[in-house]
Amino acid sequence: MISKVVPADSVYHTCRYICNKPGSEVLATDGVREFDYKLMAEDFIRQQQLRPGKQKAFFHGILSFHPTEKPSNETLTTIAAQYLDRLGIVDTQYSIVKHTDRSHLHLHVVANMVDNNGNVIKDNFTGMRGKKVAQQLTQEYKLIPAIKKDLALTNLENMNEHEVVRYKIYMAIAENLPNCNSLNDLVTRLKHQGIDTQFKYKGQTQEIQGVSFKTGNYSFKGSQVDRKFSFAGLQKALTDGIKENLDTVPDEKEETIQHTSTKETFRKIHSLSKSNSQNTFSDGGYKRAADVLKQMNKAFDDLVKPEHSDDHLPYELTQEGYRRKKKKQSHKHKR
What we know:
Layout: E1 2-5, H1 11-20, E2 25-30, H2 37-48, E3 58-64, H3 73-86, E4 94-99, E5 106-112, H4 126-140, H5 161-176, H6 183-192, E6 196-201, E7 208-215, E8 218-221, H7 222-225, H8 231-238, H9 242-247, H10 262-277, H11 286-304, H12 319-334
Helix pairs in contact: 1-2, 3-4, 10-11
């Protein structure tokens, strides 16, 4: 199970999305009406007005489960309630809604950050704390920690056009990147599949700062397609460094669900250090030693990095999606 905390600037917009999505089911509520999203939003807003100056007054967390897992509604409700409790979001209104519109089951947990007594609930680092709580609950309920994209389980039929295009770009990069020797090679291969690669340069210089991919009317930054497809991520994948060393560790297998232990990761880092130390200073080098140390530091950073969600935020709930919807509504009113 994975946690992702997303913005809930408009509770009305959030309630409409979680309640009206095809396949949605309200599992539990406290202090808000569940049979109509408009009434649910009104109830949330009424309590929020006890502290009208409170910024970011609503919590919205998404709990995603592995596609093979189908916990009962009772178990899902219990998990969501414990999730809120461990985040310190207690004695307040909340709504727990199940979505089955994708290949994996997921919950939308919305709560008021103004409690029933008009007190403000602390919201420091809820994103990071949510990930840690989800990891704890995953272990306690013996769930699968789905931490890597699984294209075979991605249900494109249930995505909107924006999401479908992004996943197609992801698949094109993922399939071609292992066979590329340079960035130009990747650009050429993607071009043959109808995907244009565009670079962002620093000022008037030739220094590349970022990369984006465009097909049809849609364009995505590399990091929007996937975190590892940013310009820096692509460079890392294309260089002869830590990736090559880690990929050649004996008995290492490509799996759609990967759960590498801390001990195993440190073993790989040690292996990298040992394989490079034999020629670190033989070819003139402090520069080579610095490169090896830099590679090991990157490996350690990957190890301690919090578990991330591959359940991309639905386009309707992204800042861009929300702005486009507001702009469209504004044009309608002007007419």
